[in-house]
């Protein structure tokens, strides 16, 4: 794989008769290409298949002919979930990064590995009324918590690559990037009482064609926000990459009073500080 300002090039080696090497990595260019400290994209041979265990328990109760209430618990746990992590990184410390790598002849390389775990637990409540007197509705409320050590194979949606690629199971465990602690959803439908057989304008013909058969319907959702990971943006640990390194927490509250928030100061920056040199946050 080649990357430069002009784009990216991929050449796949023949699996039966391998024809690409580090000396001649690109087909049609020939030998003599020089690649200093190449980055390698790796897969674990024979890695485990990810799996998820799901479980649920619901209780429903009908009241009268048209009204139903439901309460339930929903949960799941995931293991061996795949995530890209960096390999060939040195441990935090002083000195030139390249010389401290496990394989100094190579650069930062990416590995797809089955190293993440997850768990989800939720309380789900729902009430529903079937069509009665022109009105039907369904309202649901969910209170949940989702935790994992990687919300996807690649970093996306506010997620970051692992800070410490040698301690993912503990160092990266936290709220999922898609975690929403509370969500309320409603979907009411009301048949307007106009037209033939209705309370008002009870007429047929042309009048009913224009005035009858109308409905007002809506679907709405109110939910809490998603978590945000704070990054330092600096290679304080001196490992060859700083975009995923995090600051230290000072113990100060992160949230600011509503009257003190604005677009340039939405949270308490005093809640974080840069780590000491050659350490992760």
Written account of the structure:
This protein is mostly beta strands and 281 residues long. Helices cover 5% and strands 36% of the residues. The protein has helices at 97-100, 168-171, 205-211; strands at residues 2-4, 7-9, 41-43, 51-63, 67-87, 109-132, 135-148, 174-175, 182-186, 189-191, 215-217, 220-223, 248-249, 272-273. The strands form 3 sheets. Strands 3, 4, 5, 6, 7, 8, 9, 10, 11 and 12 form a 10-stranded mixed β-sheet that branches. Strands 1-2 form a two-stranded antiparallel sheet. It is elongated, with a radius of gyration of 28 Å. It starts with a strand and ends in an 8-residue tail after the last strand. 10% of the residues are buried.
**Residue windows where pLDDT falls under 50 for at least 5 positions:** 1-7
Rough outline: elongated
**Biggest beta sheet summary:** 10 strands, mixed
SS elements, strand count:
14
Average pLDDT level: 83
The gist of it:
The chain is mainly beta and 281 residues long.
Write a concise keyword list for the protein shown above:
disordered N terminus, mainly beta, 281 residues, 5% helix, 3 helices, elongated
Secondary-structure blueprint:
Elements: E1 2-4, E2 7-9, E3 41-43, E4 51-63, E5 67-87, H1 97-100, E6 109-132, E7 135-148, H2 168-171, E8 174-175, E9 182-186, E10 189-191, H3 205-211, E11 215-217, E12 220-223, E13 248-249, E14 272-273
Parallel strand pairs: 3-6
Antiparallel strand pairs: 1-2, 4-5, 5-6, 6-7, 7-8, 7-9, 7-10, 9-12, 10-11, 13-14
């Amino acid at each position: 794989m080649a990357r430069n300002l002009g784009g990216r090039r991929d050449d796949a080696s023949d699996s039966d008769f391998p024809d690409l090497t580090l000396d001649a990595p690109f087909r049609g260019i020939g030998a003599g290409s020089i690649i200093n400290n190449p980055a390698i994209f790796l897969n674990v041979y024979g890695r485990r298949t990810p799996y998820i265990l799901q479980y649920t328990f619901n209780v429903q109760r009908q009241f009268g002919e048209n009204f139903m209430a439901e309460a339930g618990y929903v949960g799941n746990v995931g293991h061996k979930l795949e995530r890209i992590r960096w390999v060939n990184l040195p441990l935090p410390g002083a000195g030139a990064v390249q010389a401290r790598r496990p394989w100094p002849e190579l650069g930062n390389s990416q590995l797809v590995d089955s190293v993440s775990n997850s768990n989800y637990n939720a309380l789900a409540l729902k009430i529903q009324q079937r069509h009665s007197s022109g009105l039907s509705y369904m309202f649901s409320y969910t209170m949940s918590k989702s935790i994992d050590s990687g919300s996807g194979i690649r970093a996306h949606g506010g997620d970051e690559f692992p800070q410490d690629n040698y301690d993912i199971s503990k160092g990266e465990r936290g709220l999922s990037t898609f975690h929403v602690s509370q969500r309320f959803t409603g979907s009411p439908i009301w048949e307007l009482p106009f037209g033939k057989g209705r309370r008002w304008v009870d007429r047929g013909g042309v009048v009913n064609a224009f005035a009858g058969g109308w409905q007002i319907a809506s679907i709405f959702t109110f939910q809490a926000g998603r978590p945000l990971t704070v990054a330092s943006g600096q290679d304080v640990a001196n490992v060859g990459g700083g975009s995923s390194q995090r600051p230290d927490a000072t113990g100060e509250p992160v949230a600011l009073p509503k009257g003190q928030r604005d677009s340039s100061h939405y949270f308490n920056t005093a809640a974080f500080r840069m780590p000491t040199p050659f350490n992760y946050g």
